[in-house]
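Predict the 3D structure for this chain.
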Amino acid sequence: MTPVDIMIPVEATPLPSRRNDLALVLVATLVMVVVSALSGFRDLTDAGGDNDNLLRLVEVRDMLAGQGWFDLHQYRMGLEGGFVMHWSRLVDAPLAVIVLAASALTGSVAMAETIAEVLWPALLFYLALLFTARAARSFAGAAAVLPAVVIGAAALHFIGIFSPGSLDHHNVQLTLTMACLSLLLDAPVQRWAALLAGLCAALMLAVGMETAPYVGTIGACIALLFVADPGGEGRIARDFGLGFAGVSALVFVTTIAPSAWGQPQCDAFSTVQFVVAALAGCGLAALASLDMAKATLGRRLVALGLLAVAMGAVVVSLFPQCLAAPYANLDPRLRELWLDNIEEAQSLYKLVIYNRVAVVERFATPLLAIMLMALGLGRGGSRRQDSLVGALLVVAFLVSAWQVRGSTFSIALAVIPLCAWIAKWRLRAEASPSRGPALKLAAAWLVSVNALWACAAVAASTAFGTAAAVDGASVNGNCQGKTSFVALSQLPDTTVLAISNLGSPILAYSGHRVFAGPYHRNVAGNLLALDTFLGSDADARSVVESHHVGLVALCRGNPETRLLVGRAPNGFLAGLTRGNVPDWLEPVAGTVGAELELYRVKLGG
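Done. Predicted structure below.
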């Protein structure tokens, strides 16, 4: 196939045509909701092992029950007193509003939570797809909108972060990223677009540090575009900088307690991120406004270089701890037995060795999009749109090569150049009566849909016998569904000793508390649970008595259980799985042989 130039000039778009975008995106969103409804909203009763969605619901419940706005403790997880979570109240707040409004209308808190679990991801899906379509229109004209809606909806549905029950912050971050990109693409012709893009970039950072690479990339692109074209990009750089710095300051004073303003945190928005954002945003706005600084190319380069040096000096001198890797200080045991086994934290290298199907599922369309953009640049095409889209796409691809969770962004960003490619072949097919362009258009459609790559990879893996063996217990008995916790929820509240994978479900589906949960700040609680399960029966009894544990939960089919049993075949957990119940435990009636087996601690032993 002859390479196709995907760079289509941006065309003036009448307002009614943009209104049609709203209708197209609404239809795609309703289809997504209907598909979930036809399955009975299965995700609402089976979180699929996504602890974060469940713990977010617990956070919202705690806040509505009276826990303070600035108090991010999770009191029912970890050692006595809990631990401080690193998430932002900016996600809790809209969820709480939906629950309050829905409960007032329905008179049922449970129904209100269900409404929030369906409505919130659907709303974010709509916004993310709308901004994707608008970015496609700015990037490649009106012909790219329909492909963007179709393959964009398929991509967003495939990555799974917009399914009903998805209350985690990753869907918020992706929506803000697409909004920021769309606004920056429109900034040359939309007066307030750059200011709003700065707002989105600040919120991206405030919601979670996972977006720091994308915020940095956006800022660098705007600065370099300003260096190359101060006349056309000066206003954009100034407005973006002011929006970024201003909203960062607003987030700082409204989401962080004054008593914590002097406490730097590297994994959450704090004084570190505020200082850097304020310096970067105000510095960029000042450079773009001062004639003295932007008069010549040399001055612009020197000014931006000095700003970069100042930012680096601030970080090195005031916050050197934040220059380390994100999990540099994590206990080696937690790294080996927890972090290294998290699917979304795997690298491309590990996937190539252990899960080639996931490589195709997660990297095919982003790589294709990067190749298309490279071909366009190779033939001499270059626009500001290409710089913004290409830089974000490449960075997202590199992040996903480090940790596969980055593919959430790269798959979504890949939609824009792919839909431009489809639009180009569509125009050629309409202009030519021959069959060739039509066949190539059909091929472009097919290879741009991420889900088709996933299906092809699974089919090929099955045909060639390379699919990994799946333990039936891991599918049917891994204790991921709500029904697994019915018996536990009916018992008097106490402390439950359980593996970390069960921590969030226990909190969400019952009133009990736990030690372990898959969160890097819960070091003490996770280590206590690990040491208890890997140690002897006597060691376990000592922990149970000293920490007032009332129940021990066993899920034989959970992958974490099998991992720990393999690590310590003579340990306490391994003995339980073999039916060796110590005399200080007794089975809870009705749970023997169930997915989640419960053992009550006998105080007299």
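The chain has a mean pLDDT of 90.
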